[in-house]
Amino acid sequence: MTHSLTFRVQGLSCASCLRRAETAASGPAGIAHAAINLAGGTLTLEAADADAVRAATQATGAAGYQAETRSTRLVLGGLHCASCVGKVERALEGVPGVLSAEVNLATSEARLTHISDPAVVSAAIKAVEKTGFEAARPTDIGPEHKKAEHTPPVLWAALLALPVVALDMGAHLVPALHHAIGATIGHGTAGVLQFVLVTVLLAWPGRAFFTRGVGALARGAPDMNTLVALGTGAAWAYSTAALFLPGLFPAGQAVLYFESAAVIATFILLGRRIEARAKGQAGRAIEALVGLQPRTAQREAHGTIEEVAIDQIAPGDVVQVKPGERLSVDGTVLTGASSIDAAMLTGEPLPVDVAPGSDVVGGTLNTTGLLRIQATATGADTVLAEIAAMVRRAQSSKLPIQSLIDRVTSLFVPIVMRLGLATLLGWLLVTGDLARAMTAAVSVLIIACPCAMGLATPMSIVTGAGRAARLGVLFRNGAALQRLAGVKVAAFDKTGTLTMGRPEVTLVDRPGHAAPADLAPLGALAATSTHPLAEAIAAYLDAKAAVTDVKNTPGLGVAGSLAGQRLRLGSAAFMDAAGLAVPDTAQDEASLVYGAVDDAVVAVFHLTDPAKPEAARAIAALKGDGVRTVLISGDREGPAQAIGKSLGLDEVIAGVLPGEKADHVRRIAGHGPVAFTGDGINDAPALAAADVGLAIGTGTDVAIEAADVVLMSGNLDSVARARAISRATMANIRQNLFWAFAYNVTLIPVAALGLLSPVAASAAMALSSLFVVFNSQRLRWAGQGRQP
Predict the structure, then answer these.
(1) 8 Å CB contact between 532 and 683
(2) pLDDT of amino acid 586
(3) Contacts of 551 (CB under 8 A, 6+ apart)
(4) Which secondary-structure segment (H or E) carries 300?
(5) Which of 317, 493, 679, 717 is catalytic?
(6) Shortest CA distance to 444 belongs to which of 740, 762, 166, 83?
(7) How far is CA 598 from CA 248, 253, 514, 576, 580, in A?
(8) 564, 569, 573, 578 alpha-carbon torsion, rounded to 10°
(9) Environment class of residue 309 by beta-carbon count within 10 Å: exposed (0-12), middle (13-18) or buried (19+)?
(10) 493 flagged as catalytic
(11) In this structure, are residues 632 and 685 in contact, taking their beta carbons and an 8 Å threshold?
(12) N or C: the chain end with fewer CB closer than 10 Å?
């Protein structure tokens, strides 16, 4: 069977492109036909399977024509263990057009990366449903579905199980109750009543065990539901036969185990209910972020103020925000002054003062004054929406450590089923006691359910990433969360990262004795650059003029022309490259910027940029954890060494060009994994080269996009805080995995030896999952000691 898929391909511009792309796409095995539509920029494939599609997209990408991809989130239903996750992932990865799939047990979500053919998502949903689970786009979940999720089957199971427990176990434990039952309804009738109640329990609140478990077994992919279905089903079948056909059993072996089936199902449903509530709490970080967005806004229109739904606000609209209200949009303050509380987004407790011209973010709290704001972004384009999406991606990510767990759990359930069968046969051969053999086998099946294994990693990720988001630390993916814990070297940019990023001119040398007014053209040139040093010079000289032929050389300087004069502003190396002599200047701890007009240096600007107040504390915290600290700066040796010495850094690397920062990051990696923190465009290569890149959230978009972790505030305490959360999360995962595996390894033999009843096994199984869930909840307080 072949599958036809059509999707957009980037880079197609001519007929030769068409031939190259078609040749590349049709090369891999399993591709029956490949055709390019140049006008539409699309590629149509006739492919045998998903692997063929993946190979074709890789081949076209290698040829220079990247397939346009999409990322889609699906909400899943029916996931209860690691084997469920593995089955759904395999089903999704088998859909032609799906390039990768990650399923998260803690959030019951799947994240797909797929080609842009819209039919792929529909096919993915059908593939999940064929495996016996539910899947839907988040927007497809209606009120009915949400209401059904809150209906607790465990309540009905408990109501049905209580009379069974009273009639069976109560009668054994309390002789008076045993006699009362015999004297009233009779023990035979009591047995029939137990049969009816347990049959209803398994067929109604416990039916999912059988519909999913038996279906999974029929497909050759047994899961946790299969183990529960086999265990409770065996107990029910044995008891039913013993009740209605006692002559089939040897003397003394026609025993009823209805209470075991009832209590096992109830305990497991109870465990799932508690898990679901705890998982919901773990994911509340996203709900809290989304909940910050107001539903309505006060929009100015035709001289009046009208209250409108937030989705009716467009960029350019003007909205009013009263004191005590949350900002509805991202925008720029037009009029008014106030203090903005952004603690939920940045983790910083102190409000920030804003005035006309200040940029503000939707979801933050206006505390004191009336503001008029012009919207620059709304809806999914706001910073708040991007943060929520980033947290969701991190929580849905799969850590590298998870791959080992997936391999183990994919084999675990089949092995357990064989152990259960071996236990049954072993007891029969040794003792001939069918009742004891069945009891031991059921205990093995129940005790071995791999719920705790499946929850061990994702629960920690969900809780840890959510906690980090509350403290203003945004992990882009789970891999960064794992790598940051192992970092041995922390490298930093200087300007805007370790320092305030607002340098000031403290002294101006004029080698040619030029008059202050003669420096105005240099001020105009400085105004064309966004470099912090240039901006400080522009503010100092306060000159306005139209400079032409502007050429910026990153890390060195800027040149341009004004009124027939050739202007240059930059470092000593920049002047040397232009053939200009640099005058001797007192080497202080300031940064030096040279200004030249035509063929002579006419000014030397001395600028200082003080360290951030918390920088020394943040560096000390990292060094206290055994992390080597390094400064990598483009500034000259004097200022860089001064900052390094004042903050107690282990190493200072100065005079580095932007392209060289990444080389130095790779060099210092000899001391161990490196985390690099920066905020500027010139930091992007170093952020990408580091094992973990951390971008100051107040920095440039380029730096933020290149980073693995975004620190929403400019506070350097967030670096130590991020590492503390990462280490706490990885420690939590190791604890969860140890106890999940130790529990199974220890108790399976105990159950096989007949030393654990099915009821006790079901309670222990539920408790193991709850241990993982509640142990993960401890991460909700991680990083407290790292707060300023």
Answers:
(1) no
(2) 67
(3) 558, 559, 560
(4) strand 296-301
(5) 493
(6) 762
(7) 110, 107, 13, 14, 10
(8) 0
(9) exposed
(10) yes
(11) no
(12) N
How many Cβ atoms are within 10 Å of 262's Cβ, its own excluded?
A: 29
Taking the C-alpha atoms of residue 386 and residue 697, their distance in angstroms, rounded to an integer, is 12
Q: Tell me the C-alpha distance between 219 and 214, whole Å.
A: 9
Under a CB-based contact definition with an 8 Å cutoff, are residues 685 and 658 in contact? yes
Phi, psi for 278 (deg, rounded to 5): -65, -40
- Strands (DSSP E) contained in 62-191 are 69-77, 98-104, 109-115, 134-136
* Token couple for 508: 């101006």
CA-based torsion, 336, 339, 341, 347: positive or negative: positive
Residue (of 744, 157, 12) closest to 445 by Cα position: 744
Backbone angles phi, psi at 103, to 5 degrees: -115, 130
Q: How far is CA 624 from the centre of its chain?
A: 28
The single residue listed with the structure tokens 């240059």 is 568
* Burial of 177 from C-beta contacts in 10 A (0-12 / 13-18 / 19+): middle
The alpha carbon torsion through 125, 128, 129, 134 (nearest 10 deg) reads -80
The rounded distance, in Å, linking the Cα atoms of 92 and 81 is 17
Which residue in the block uniquely carries the two structure tokens 């140890």?
738
The secondary structure of 171-189, three-state, reads: HHHCHHHHHHHHHCCCHHH
CB 297 within 8 A of CB 322: no
Give the separation between CA 649 and CA 599, rounded to whole angstroms: 40
Burial per residue of 690-723, b for 16 or more beta-carbon CB atoms within 10 angstroms, e otherwise: bbbbbbbbebbeebbebbbbbbbbbbbbbbbbbb
Alpha carbons 712 and 718: distance in angstroms, whole number: 9
- pLDDT value of position 465: 84
pLDDT lower than 70: segments of the chain: 13-15, 139-151, 170-173, 271, 274-290, 344-350, 390-407, 409-410, 449-451, 454, 586-588, 680-681, 698-706, 784-788
Instruction: Note the Cα 435 to chain centre separation in Å.
Output: 49
The CA-CA-CA angle for residues 162, 166, 172, to 5°, reads: 145
pLDDT at 350: 67
d(CA 76, CA 138): 9
For 502-553, how does the pLDDT look when each residue is reduced to its tens digit (9 = 90+)? 888 888 888 877 787 788 899 999 999 888 889 899 989 988 888 898 998 8
pLDDT in the model for residue 704:
61
CA distance 529 to 536: 10
Q: Which residues of 17-46 are buried (b: 16+ CB within 10 A; e: fewer)?
A: bbebbbebbbebebbeebebeeeebbbbbb
Give residue 348's pLDDT: 62
CA gap 744, 448 in Å, rounded: 6
Using alpha carbons only, give the angle 777, 780, 784 rounded to the nearest 5 degrees: 140
In angstroms, the first-to-last Cα distance of the chain is 62
pLDDT digits (tens, 9 = 90+) for 210-220: 888 887 788 77
Give pTM, 2 decimals: 0.67
Query: How many degrees, rounded to 5, is the angle at CA 505 between CA 499 and CA 507?
Result: 125
Number of neighbours of residue 730 by Cβ within 10 angstroms: 21
